[in-house]
Amino acid sequence: LRFDGIDDAYSSASPIALGTDEVCALASVYKMSDAAIGMVCELSPSTGSNNGSFFLAAPRDPSVANYGFCPKGTIIAQVTTGASFAAPHGAILTGQSKIGSDLATLRVKGVQVASAATDQGTGPYTVQTLYVGGRAETFLLFNGWVSGLLVLSRLPSAAELAYAEKYFARKSGITL
After folding, report:
1. Nearest alpha-carbon partner for 116 in 155, 160, 71
2. pLDDT digits over 51-64, tens only?
3. Which candidate, 105, 134, 108, 137, places its Cα nearest to that of 120?
4. Average pLDDT value for residue range 96-107
5. Helix (H, G, I), strand (E, B) or coil at 163
6. Cα three-residue angle 157-112-73, rounded to 5 degrees
7. Starting at the edge strand that comes first in sequence, how are the strands of the sheet with 2-4 ordered?
8. Beta carbons of 10 and 131 less than 8 angstroms apart
9. Average pLDDT of every residue of the chain
10. pLDDT of residue 83
């Protein structure tokens, strides 16, 4: 999917129910710009940042040109790369969270680059719309390509995660 950062985004046809307090969001992305926050994918209502939601962003902070993953039970946890990955830049991004154990990690190209043990509150990921390329299809629009996206309602084993990241990298031409 190619997003121009101006008016392109998609959403699931109906709300998605993950039903657990675990999520793994894996995306193959190529960001073309760091001019504004870009939502790669987000599980939320149109208002964003509500209980039982998450998002992957590229960039999360335009002034740093970083990547970010933000999961939330009843309290949001922000996991962002400390390093800059200036556009244009291709990556396999993997955000993982377990609300009940306050686990939140972000991987870039198969390497964990950030984590947070921030209290995420309580509850599961709730029934919400999955947006790709922008929040509510109207703002925080991503500028680049998403060539693969996988959202799991569980944390994969280390072997499963390594396989999925390698598969996405091979299919999108990104070197891990």
Report:
1. 71
2. 999 999 999 999 99
3. 105
4. 95
5. helix
6. 70
7. 2-4, 143-152, 22-31, 89-98, 103-108, 111-116
8. yes
9. 93
10. 87
Q: Tokens for 142? A: 């991503």
Asked whether the bond before 88 is cis by omega within 30 degrees of 0, the reply is yes
- In eight-state DSSP terms, residue 100 is G
Distance CA 8, CA 47 (A): 18
Q: How far apart are CA 51 and CA 36, in angstroms?
A: 24
Mean pLDDT of 144-170: 97
Q: Is the pLDDT of residue 131 over 90?
A: yes
Alpha-carbon gap, residue 91 to 172, rounded angstroms: 9
**Which residue from 10, 50, 7 is spatially nearest to 143, judged by alpha carbons?**
7
pTM of the entire predicted model: 0.94
Dig out the tokens for 104 from the structure: 């939140």
Q: Tell me how crowded residue 99 is: count the other CB atoms within 10 A of its CB.
A: 27
Q: Which helix (H) or strand (E) holds 161?
A: helix 158-172
Q: How many CA atoms lie within 13 A of 47 on its CB side?
A: 4
Question: How big is the CA angle at 83 (ends 79 and 85), to the nearest 5 degrees?
Answer: 100
pLDDT of 154 > 80? The answer is: yes
Taking the C-alpha atoms of residue 174 and residue 100, their distance in angstroms, rounded to an integer, is 33
